[in-house]
């Protein structure tokens, strides 16, 4: 008995089937590709942005006037944020790191140390913000010179992207010298300006592919080359190393170290009572000044005896953190934790950030035996 095809199939014109196949292919291509022809960008992918409206953490080159062709339409890109990881093994998971630096004065030692970081540079984006004014201009010129040299150099040394922002305001201080920066009377206005700079830099540069944010001050000139993966290995939402300073002791005729950053601390009943009873709503408490005895436990003095083979991975809980080298999971910032430029529970800038993060249920940690070093002026 002969086998006959169904009536509907026999009546279908072959041309109709071909057209249906073409339309199906076109529909699938439209769904799974962006308007500029590129496919959906994976969270772990780093490549040049196709349009100026793409995430700021991806590099983008403007089309110069006179060039042929038209500006591409803004792409529609899907980011599956559930696939974005922040883990104790960031290299294996290809986690992107955004290193952010407010920069008022350029130190060559800072840049040289940055280049020595062993975290894959193709997974690192850099962001800088510099103030308006003469010193800011000089710092910008020096920074741009090193950026161009690095980004045209060996591929292994190049960073995924570099963003340089210029503020429309000058630094509130007349000088960036260390003595001037740390005068008590300059602290509130200085740290409020720093908070605004940090927030502007953060909100402009953090993109949907960012897993970690490392805040690294421009005068941090020496860190372990494995700084990024060392801090990430603890897998904490906020973690900060101990910041010390190398100096030449003329009395002993040798190089020694001393504490530098006093903003990483555990709170005390004295400080809490002082804030409650004697401070106005806009007053702030700061560490390292005899005029403001808080009796907080400072991480700078939690260092174990060097002769006892101290554990560099030792962790302590903190209520306040410094920003000289501060590692933050990007999701903490995405939750809304920023740097208050105003008195927030009598705290400001990085210490205020730790308090704000704690209010959002993110705990801060410190590494008292793990050191980074500040430039010695």
Automatic annotation (TrEMBL):
Residues in coiled coil: none
Gene Ontology cellular component list: mannan polymerase complex
Pfam families per UniProt: Anp1
Membrane-topology annotation of the record: Single-pass type II membrane protein
UniProt keywords, alphabetically: Golgi apparatus, Membrane, Signal-anchor, Transmembrane, Transmembrane helix
BP GO terms, sorted: cell wall mannoprotein biosynthetic process; protein N-linked glycosylation
A single GO molecular function term of this UniProt record: alpha-1,6-mannosyltransferase activity
UniProt cross-references to InterPro entries, sorted A to Z: Mannan_Polymerase_Subunit, Nucleotide-diphossugar_trans
Location relative to the cell: Golgi apparatus membrane
Residues in the signal sequence: none
Transmembrane regions listed in the UniProt entry: 12-32
Family from the record: Belongs to the ANP1/MMN9/VAN1 family.
Name of the protein in its database record: Alpha-1,6 mannosyltransferas-like protein subunit
């Amino acid at each position: 008995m002969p086998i006959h095809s169904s009536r509907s199939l026999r009546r279908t014109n072959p041309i109709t089937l071909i057209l249906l196949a073409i339309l199906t292919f076109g529909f699938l291509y439209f769904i799974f590709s962006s308007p500029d022809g590129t496919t959906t960008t994976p969270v772990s992918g780093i490549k040049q942005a196709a349009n100026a409206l793409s995430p700021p953490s991806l590099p983008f080159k403007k089309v110069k006037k006179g060039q042929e062709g038209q500006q591409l339409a803004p792409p529609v890109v899907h980011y599956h944020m559930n696939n974005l990881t922040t883990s104790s093994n960031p290299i294996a998971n290809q986690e992107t790191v955004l290193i952010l630096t407010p920069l008022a004065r350029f130190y060559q030692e800072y840049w040289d140390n940055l280049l020595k970081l062993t975290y894959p540079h193709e997974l690192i984006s850099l962001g800088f913000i510099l103030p308006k004014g003469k010193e800011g201009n000089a710092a910008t010129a020096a920074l741009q010179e090193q950026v161009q040299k690095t980004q045209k150099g060996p591929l292994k040394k190049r960073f995924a992207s570099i963003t340089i922002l210029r503020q429309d305001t000058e630094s509130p201080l007349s000088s960036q010298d260390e003595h001037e920066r740390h005068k008590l009377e300059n602290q509130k206005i200085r740290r409020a300006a720093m908070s605004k700079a940090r927030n502007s830099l953060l909100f402009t540069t953090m993109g949907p592919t960012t897993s970690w944010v490392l805040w690294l001050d421009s005068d941090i000139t020496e860190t372990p080359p494995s700084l990024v993966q060392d801090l990430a290995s603890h897998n904490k939402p906020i973690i900060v190393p101990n910041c010390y300073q190398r100096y030449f002791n003329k009395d002993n005729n040798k190089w020694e170290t001393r504490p530098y950053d006093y903003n990483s601390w555990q709170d005390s009943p004295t400080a809490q009572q002082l804030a409650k009873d004697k401070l106005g709503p806009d007053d702030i408490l700061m560490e390292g000044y005899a005029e403001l005895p808080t009796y907080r436990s400072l991480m700078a003095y939690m260092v174990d005896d060097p002769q006892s083979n101290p554990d560099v991975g030792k962790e302590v809980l903190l209520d306040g953190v410094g920003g000289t080298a501060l590692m933050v999971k990007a999701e903490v910032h995405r939750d809304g934790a920023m740097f208050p430029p105003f008195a927030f529970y009598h705290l400001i800038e990085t210490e205020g950030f730790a308090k704000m993060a704690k209010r959002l249920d993110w705990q801060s940690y410190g590494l008292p035996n793990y050191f980074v070093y500040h430039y010695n002026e």
